[in-house]
Amino acid sequence: MDLPTSDMELVRENEKIEDDKERGLTFHCELYDTEIVHKLAQAFLPGLSTACVNNTTGDMFRNPGSVAADIRKEMVDYLTQRSERFVAESVVLEGDLVSDHPYDIISNMIDDFASLKLNLFSRVSGWLLSEKREDKIDDFVQEMEISGFWLLDRREAVAQILVKNVDLKNIFHCDKKSNTAKELAEHVVNCGFRTMNCTNEGCSTVFCASHLEKHDSACPFKIIPCEQQCSENILRREMDRHCITVCRMKIVSCPFYAVGCQSTMPHFRIQQHCSDNLLSHLLYTLKTIHKGGSEEDLKKRVDQIVESSSGGLADARDARSLILKVKDAEAKLGPLEVKVSEKVSEEPNKDGENSSEEPVEAFNKGGEQSSEEDKISGEKSTETINKVGEELSSIQV
């Protein structure tokens, strides 16, 4: 009989040791996801305001401010109890939960509480007073913020408890347990939920250590290299403005786009492009002025203008300025000499032979007629130059 009694006592002693060991794990990490807790704390005031307005709508003797303190206490108790029962509710509602994110879960609880505070008048006439009701809710939120009715740090303390109650997967709070205070202190230093402040000048964001990389990749106050790879370092929030205004690498159209040059290039290369393509820009301009001129005639005219300009054309940086220089040059050179096209006539073969076998004879008009045509053509060219000059004078590149 002694042996079994001894065995039983040994088992009980071992159980006692295990119980003591479990009870010894009293050091818990209290860190949490700062971003979620802060976001929830921000949602408490609109929820409380809605509940107060719902409860006093149509009441001549009460207003939201007169019931705020009592409803706040009811709201905290309600959310705490609901969050503590969330594990059981999640089992019952398995498959019906829209989201398992703590913010969504607690936000739904806040909405449920506000709905419970609807009085009879609110339920009957709420749809008639919807716009006025929303304005009243917003106004009361601002009133509470200004008066400091429910301070942010106290709201965050409530939110922290709620997050821990509904965060079943321990994603948004730390559940680390330690045997000693020293062990816990060592853990806290490296805990992924430890609070950090952004080090970028001008940024006051607070976040968990585990979110450092995420915040760093989006912080509007971080100085980063230009996205278009110029030599500048710019605040992320000013990057778009920099890229479309002053960045030397922004892509722009050629200043002579209006007369036909379709080239695009980084902004800093405009001057080089204009210098390298002076002749082609001049040809584009002449084609605009002398629309009926042949390529050969216009190229000859380009050579004439270049020879007579003594390098002044290189100063033209846009279509308007080049038009003016071309106009001055052509005034000195005189009308454009246009080559008269040859007319061909075919006469029937008197001997009945196939006319296609006979050479085609070309004829030129008399010197007098040719001279008259040159004169008319010159006058038309001058008129065209003046007209195009006037049209392009308003062009701004």
Automatic annotation (TrEMBL):
Keywords: Metal-binding, Zinc, Zinc-finger. Residues 339-397 are annotated as: Disordered. Pfam families: zf-TRAF. Residues 339-353, 372-382 have a biased composition (Basic and acidic residues). The keyword Metal-binding applies. It comes from the Eukaryota. PROSITE patterns: ZF_TRAF (PS50145). SUPFAM superfamilies: TRAF domain-like. This is TRAF-type domain-containing protein. Gene3D superfamilies: Zinc/RING finger domain, C3HC4 (zinc finger). Residues 210-271 form the TRAF-type domain. A zinc finger (TRAF-type) spans 210-271.
